[in-house]
Specification:
The structure holds two protein chains of two kinds.
Chain A: E1 2-10, E2 16-25, E3 30-34, H1 41-48, E4 56-61, E5 64-65, H2 74-78, E6 81-84, H3 96-105, H4 111-124, H5 140-153, E7 158-162, H6 170-185, E8 189-193, H7 197-203, E9 206-211, E10 214-220
Parallel strand pairs in A: 3-8, 3-9, 6-7, 7-8
Antiparallel strand pairs in A: 1-2, 1-4, 4-5, 9-10
Chain B: H1 4-17, H2 19-56, E1 59-63, H3 69-80, E2 85-91, H4 93-104, E3 121-126, H5 132-141, E4 145-149, H6 152-194, H7 196-204, H8 209-247, H9 260-291
Antiparallel strand pairs in B: 1-3, 1-4, 2-3
Helix pairs in contact in B: 1-8, 2-6, 2-8, 6-8, 6-9, 8-9
Classes of the chains: A alpha/beta, B alpha+beta.
The complex binds adenosine-5'-triphosphate and magnesium ion.
């Protein structure tokens, strides 16, 4: 479960990125996080991945409290959250297989576990047979699917994606979003940050609308920016 | 630990991605160990020679010829009381003559040699070779002693060699350790820089700092290990060559060189420990700041 309660965050340069944000996403739910540029969406994602800590308020991530977490617990918290970035962040000189293996070995998985898990996850994201390809041999949509596979390999409770379709054309964006919806249907909590209104409206999921660091709308349906 | 094979192979991969820098890091470690080892071994051998001298090199004090036998023997207690004197042995004229004849008379040439040619004497061992000059002077001042023969030149030579080797090795060790630490740490910094994307991903998926650190520690350890093995081999060759050179030289022959076979184990251990420590310290230096992100 993800829960933010009256969260404030001011960056060192004085920018008030979040001014009292509260919302909750239950296990197994799907939520879009939308809002204009600079409204604080990526800041929320960074709080959920433990990259930054809140100045005020509480951030709960799958049982860990980000504001007063012990240093040694941060890796454990991160293992419960799979992260997907706009720019994929694949290792260019590693094959698809090795990119996924890196993520698994990093948390201590044995070679045997890796060999068993990777084909399953690649099948899930529709990349069977691309094990030996390098990222630059794949289309943008395929690369993002590798990144999704990497976020999934360690079986996280939650997947957070910060503009996963920002670098993709509309057709591919729809594919990726559909994949995330399928992953959610299999039981993983999914939180997706996006700008793309048509896409959001197409799926008819819960939409959390941010503006200038506060939540100004939260409900199932469509993404309509208020005047 | 179940991941040790993984850390090791990652460490090797790190090394190979920077072939030239890795070569430089190993090379500098070898050079450091070799120089440290050589000076330490020179100092060690000088010390061994000094200890042998301590046992064998005696001050000989000749008794004034005008003294009677009784008077000559009576000096013994006065000699023993001189500070720095370890033991005193009286050698009579007759004994001195007999020893001389036994040592040098191969053809019976000296069989008629009279004991009167020799003088009563004392063979004195001293506690500290470095004080030989002062002790010899003090012995000479004892009443009834005519003349003292002390072979200072060799002793002084060994002491100088040992002191110089010690000073140089301490100064060099300090400088060289810093240099090799710096080179190793910079080589590993290159790999951390190369792999910063990988490290970032590892952190995102929840790798611990310890886990991220290990391959780099292994890389440093391998530098240290390879460096110490190569240095040990070269040290062995160098030592053997120098020992042969000294044994084959007429004037230098009296220097005793401890055979390498007798000291290889401590030398190997020293190289291994210093090499590994430098390697590990270098890698920790390289990744220390990196992980604080
Ligand atoms: N590291 C930082 N240091 C200082 N200010 C920052 C930092 N990161 C973000 N900000 C500022 O905080 C505010 C919120 O930024 P954030 O990245 O969360 O917005 P966003 O909703 O993700 O925007 P976009 O849709 O453009 O990605 C912005 O004003 C931004 O300039
Ligand atoms: Mg953003």
């Amino acid at each position: 479960m993800i829960r933010l309660k009256d969260v404030h965050k001011t960056y060192v340069n004085g920018t008030h990125a979040l001014n009292g944000v509260s919302f909750q996403v239950d296990d197994g739910d799907f939520a879009f996080l939308v809002g204009p540029s600079g409204s604080g969406k990526s800041t929320i994602i960074k709080l959920l991945t433990g990259e930054i800590v809140p100045d005020r308020g509480r951030v709960m991530v799958n049982g860990f409290s980000v504001s007063n977490i012990r240093e040694w617990q941060i890796p454990l918290m991160r293992r419960t959250v799979g992260v997907i970035f706009q720019d994929f962040r694949l290792i260019q000189n590693k094959t698809v297989y090795d990119n996924l293996a890196l993520a698994m070995r990093a948390v201590g998985a044995s070679r045997a576990t890796v060999q068993e898990r990777i084909p399953y996850v690649l099948e899930l994201v529709g990349l069977r047979g691309k094990e030996k390809s390098f990222p630059d041999q794949l289309s943008g949509g395929e690369q993002q699917r590798v990144a999704i596979a990497r976020a999934l390999v360690n079986n996280p409770i939650t997947i957070v994606a910060d503009e996963p379709t920002g670098n993709l054309d509309p057709a591919m964006s729809l594919e990726i979003m559909t994949l995330l919806e399928r992953i959610n249907a299999l039981g993983t909590t999914v939180i997706v940050v996006t700008h793309e209104r048509e896409l959001v409206n197409h799926f008819r999921k819960r939409v959390i609308l941010l503006d200038r660091g506060t939540v100004i709308g939260d409900g199932v349906g469509t993404y309509e920016v208020e005047a | 630990m179940k991941n040790i094979g993984y850390f090791f192979s990652e460490g090797c991969r790190n090394m190979l991605t920077h072939g030239f820098m890795s070569f430089a890091a190993v090379g500098i470690t070898v050079a450091c160990l070799l120089i440290m080892g050589t000076f330490s071994l020179v100092a060690y051998n000088a010390n061994v020679n000094l200890e042998i001298l301590q046992r064998e090199n005696a001050v000989v004090a000749f008794v004034d010829d005008s003294l009677s036998d009784q008077e000559a023997q009576a000096i013994e207690s006065r000699l023993a009381a001189v500070p720095g004197v370890a033991d005193v042995t009286f050698v009579s004229r007759q004994e001195a003559r007999d020893t001389y004849v036994a040592n040098y008379d191969e053809n019976g040439l000296y069989s008629e040699l009279s004991a009167n040619v020799f003088r009563h004497r004392y063979v004195i061992h001293i506690t500290d070779q470095e004080q030989m000059h002062a002790i010899a002077a003090a012995v000479e001042d004892v009443e009834g002693i005519d003349k003292v023969r002390a072979d200072e030149a060799i002793t002084t030579g060994f002491i100088t060699v040992r002191n110089v080797a010690q000073i140089i090795s301490f100064a060099l060790i300090a400088v060289l350790l810093v240099v090799s630490l710096f080179i190793i740490s910079n080589t590993i910094k290159l790999t951390t820089f190369d792999r910063k994307d990988e490290i970032a991903i590892m952190k995102v998926v929840g790798a611990t700092d310890g886990f991220i650190r290990w391959p780099f520690v292994f890389e440093g350890m391998i530098f240290g290990l390879v460096g110490s093995v190569v240095a040990f081999g070269l040290q062995w060759l160098l030592y053997a060559a120098i020992a042969d050179g000294i044994a084959g030289n007429d004037t230098l022959q009296l220097i005793r060189i401890v055979p390498f076979g007798a000291i290889w184990a401590p030398v190997a251990l020293f190289f291994l420990v210093v090499g590994m420590l430098v390697g590990i310290a270098g890698s920790l230096m390289a990744i220390h700041r990196f992980l604080r992100v």
